[in-house]
Amino acid sequence: MKGLLLTGLHFLSNDELLDRLAQDHHAIINNPDVLLLKPASQGRASWAELRAVNLRDLETAGKEIKLAKTEAEAQGATLRWKEYSQAYDGTNNTLFRIAERQLAQGPLLADRYLGLLAYGRPKPDANLDRIPETHWAAGTMDWQRRQLRMDHNEMWSGIEILNLSDLSPEIAAAVIGRQPIDVDRPTISRAGLDEFLRSHVTGLPPESQDLSESRLWERAQYEFPGHKVPRELVRDWIKNEMPAHLRKKPGRPPMR
Q1: Which range marks the domain in which residue 191 is found?
Q2: Per the domain annotation, does 104 fall within a domain?
Q3: Cα distances (Å, whole numbers) of residue 227 to 170, 172, 192, 199, 212
Q4: What pTM does this model have?
Q5: Which site among 15, 29, 210, 232 is 20 to 30 Å from 239 CA-CA?
């Protein structure tokens, strides 16, 4: 069971977590104010771009498998698909390690609370409880099973991840047990935000990184500095109002 405070909050799937981390790594390139708050991108243009390249390679190899006319062509394309799949998994595993470092670091305070927060069950029949940062520093995480294993056969299971940036400052403060900050500014109206986002995405190509949730939220905050811009409003706009030809189609392409 989830406590009353956690009811209704959006927990991240593995795919969503990877997308957020990759998008945030793209955002730091043009936002030096938050550069020190996020892990370095290790010299790459961005993790979002690297992940997109991995997916395009997989799609290309999948089409080559489908269109192969000889066994040799099919075998060659299959080998390429496996190589690209390994590269894609390597990128994802690196991002998972970054997530683990953020979880071990704990919430950060800028103009609001940032970072990742994890909940899990110390016993299978227990309620969700917050996982201490020290456990992330010492444990071994299995992201497929959502289990964090500790020494002496101790284990957190059923792990759920919150992104504090997704929450209003008041809710973020409440879930980590601290005083709220940034409560004086009024919240942007949904109509005003919708109008801005519709205008902003006009003319952007479907592959543009500026269409990501992270980049749109960041741009809206710059556009309305006197207002709070809840990230969930941006997410709702992407889900319900984003033009169909601009919507992302996530997921790993299958072997064909």
Answers
A1: 14-246
A2: yes
A3: 14, 17, 11, 19, 21
A4: 0.65
A5: 29
